[in-house]
Amino acid sequence: MRRLVPGLCLALAAVATSCARPRPEAPGYTPAWQNVRERAAPPPGADAPDPGPLSLDDCVRIALENNRRVRIADRRILVARDRIDEAYAGLAPKLSASGRFEHRSNRYGFDFGEMAFAIDQRDTASFQAGVLVPIYDFGQTYNRIEGELRRGEAAVEQAEKARQDLVLDVARAYYRVLEARKIQAVVDESIQVLASQLAIARDFHRVGMTAKNDLLAVAVQYALRHLDRIQAVNNVHLAESTLARVMGLDVTRPPRIVDVADADPHGVSLDAAMRVAIARRPELIALRREVEGARADSRAAAAGWLPRIDAFGGYNYSADSLLVNPDWWSGGFTVQFPFFDGGATIARASQAARRVDEMIDLQEDRSNDILLEVKTAWLADRAALEKIPVGRLGILLGEESLRMMRDQYREGLATSAEVLAEEERLSQARVELARAYYNCRVARSVLVHAVGGTLPPPDANSGTPAIPSIDDLLNPTK
What we know:
Elements: H1 4-18, H2 32-38, H3 56-66, H4 68-88, E1 94-103, E2 108-112, E3 115-119, E4 123-136, H5 140-206, H6 212-247, H7 270-280, H8 282-302, E5 308-318, E6 327-336, H9 344-410, H10 416-451, H11 470-474
Antiparallel strand pairs: 1-4, 2-3, 4-5, 5-6
């Protein structure tokens, strides 16, 4: 029995080293139904905690905590790390153990013609334990490790891209909520103007200064503006629900958000933005790492033609009584020469080489797409900035024109139709300015996303003035 102790120790070591356990940093998986239940409305009588008005940064932080795309990207990083561990395992010794029990239906023996003998041994047990130590494989394992390391870095960059995409989605939804609310405020202000005009028209009609159709025209426009308000309120609710969905919150309980501060022009040249985008865009960095990993795979596949040198050692025990020594140790070296494998190595090397060419083409193609994306975002941002002063001037002219037309109406020199036309132009100018202001914010977010998450330092000679707040723009005469 004492002879079995070394073999049992080797077997236990092999079992212990072969046991796999998950990484301690691996996040636990939560079923979708459990997340829904946790986000469900509180029971009657219990008030949900109100975090207060949220800024854009607060919304982004909550979205990053709740978004499933980010979780999936993080899990892919862990999968890539597991593959790295698997590649490193090619450098580690391999321990193995096996046992065998055999029962014969007759006796064991030999027959040498005139001489024969038999042994009444029908049960035989044996045990083997061994270790295989890789010595040298001409870079196959090291290149596999290199390829997995590069793909692990690519997974990190892809996770960063998922985060940047989510930040852009949150910014778009955030500004659309503010835009919808500002348009609703413009409609409410228009309703107040029309209500005042309706009261004046009613008084003029009562004293016979205007015809009834003049009064009816104002009443119809007043009713139509209320229909516009219904649509504006609906747009606010829809935008708030969209923001809640992007943030991973309950769409029936949208968050309260605050308006943004003044908009400052970026003042960055197009060339600088393009250079930064090529250097920082996470998908481009990921593709560069994929190219490096593909080249390492190609080297590993090419090394498949070369021999492999391993060292081995083992312990054997057998209960066969015919053996002089029932247990023994052994060790040595092996050299494997892959002379012919049916063309499998050639096929793997060819696939790896074509994979390198494919990844290089993808990198160049994506680089061109990103340059176009940066230029489009840069032009859109500049156009949005240039629209704001024009919209502000339109409001100034519209307010003055409406004031003059209302004065003429009180003097009997204009009709309600002319007043309504000027009021419609002013309301439309305010709506367009609100859209231009928040489109400017969205365009800035798109530009930040296009260059890789952070704008480069502004040019010293840009000379672009800052943009006032939206309230100052919509009410320039106050």
